[in-house]
Amino acid sequence: MHLFEISSCADLPEEVGKCIRHVLSLGEIPAGLFEVPGSAIKAIGIRYVTKDSSAPVIAENHQRVVDVHVVVQGGDGVAVVAEGDAAPSGDYCDKDDYQLFDVAGELELQELTAGHVAVFEPYEIHVTGRAVGEPGDVVKVVLKVPAELFEG
C-alpha cells in the first residue's frame, strides 16, 4: 500500500492522475460504476459509514487491477493484511477480479482522509471502511486501474 496526498501524486501514471483530477472536479460523486471521459479506467463512487472494531473484518485482493482509493469526504481506516492473517472466504471471481478473505488478528489501520489517495497493488490483501476513532461518513471513488499502466 502506498499513501499519497493528492497534490503529490506526480509519481502515478499520467492516466491515473487525469482520472483523479476528473473525480475531484465533480460537484457530486455518482454512486456506483461511472465512466471517466477519455479513459478505460473504471471508477466506482462509494458512500458508507465506517465500521468500528467490533464488526467482522472482510478483506479483498485483485490479480489484474491496482485499486486506487480517492477519499473525497471523511476519513477511512485502511490496512494491508499479511497472508498468514487472512483465509479465503470463497472462490476467486475472475469476471470481476477479486478474492474475499476473512481476517484474524489486529489491524494496523492508517487513516485515509479527504485529499489523500491509497494505492493497493495486485495481490495485496487490503481492508477499507474501518473507523479510526468514532465511525463516520465516507465518500470516495475507487479507480480500478489495469496493472499494466503501472509497469514500465
From TrEMBL:
<protein>
    <submittedName>
        <fullName>YhcH/YjgK/YiaL family protein</fullName>
    </submittedName>
</protein>
<dbReference type="InterPro" id="IPR037012">
    <property type="entry name" value="NanQ/TabA/YiaL_sf"/>
</dbReference>
<dbReference type="GO" id="GO:0005829">
    <property type="term" value="C:cytosol"/>
</dbReference>
<dbReference type="InterPro" id="IPR004375">
    <property type="entry name" value="NanQ/TabA/YiaL"/>
</dbReference>
<dbReference type="Pfam" id="PF04074">
    <property type="entry name" value="DUF386"/>
</dbReference>
